Amino acid sequence: MIYEYDLEHMKLRTGDLICTxxxxxxxxxxxxxxxxxxxxxxxxDHIVIYxxxxxxxxxxxxxxxxxxxxxxGDKWDYNAMxxxxxxxxxxxxxVRPLQGKGLSPAAESQAxxxxxxxxxxxxxxxxxxxxxFLDSATDAAFYCSQLAYKAYLTVGINLNTDxxxxxxxxxxxxxxxxEIWSGFQNERPL
Length: 190
Fold this sequence. Notes:
- The chain is of the alpha+beta class and 190 residues long.
- It has one domain (4-182).
- The chain contains five helices and eight strands; from the N terminus they run βββαβββαβαααβ.
- The chain has helices spanning 28-38, 78-85, 105-124, 144-153, 177-183; strands at 4-7, 10-13, 17-22, 46-50, 56-60, 66-70, 89-95, 186-187.
- The two termini are 28 Å apart.
- InterPro entries: Papain-like_cys_pep_sf.
């Protein structure tokens, strides 16, 4: 089933990607995440996959494994989600990799369901966080943008675009959040 959810005046659909920047408000937690974000090239530091229903999402992150969590309300409130996620981040925008692919409505719905099911399966299995960023081919563990990359590969879309990332020797296999943001249809909050 395909779900829709309004987040800061943007319409999310199952399979859409939420992009965030690390860091948030004042305090030690916010400073820690802001520092961590500085080590990732680009403005976008983290990718979350919207699955629905309601505000349900999947991510690989601070909890050390792939998890589901819920956005409550129509605002990205890292404080409200911190207990579930353990991350302090700010909403950067939404990426819609399926938009403009020329898929029929039925094919797009099938792709969205396949992407969501892949992500939910990884969370159900409690797959660990992948600290080996150079190994984006593995299905044994995931980092945030690698999870989105692997989910989209199941429907024939490659999120490893190299768009918006400086050429850093030895990093071709890393799936950077910024390249996903820069390589596809995206929207910023008002």
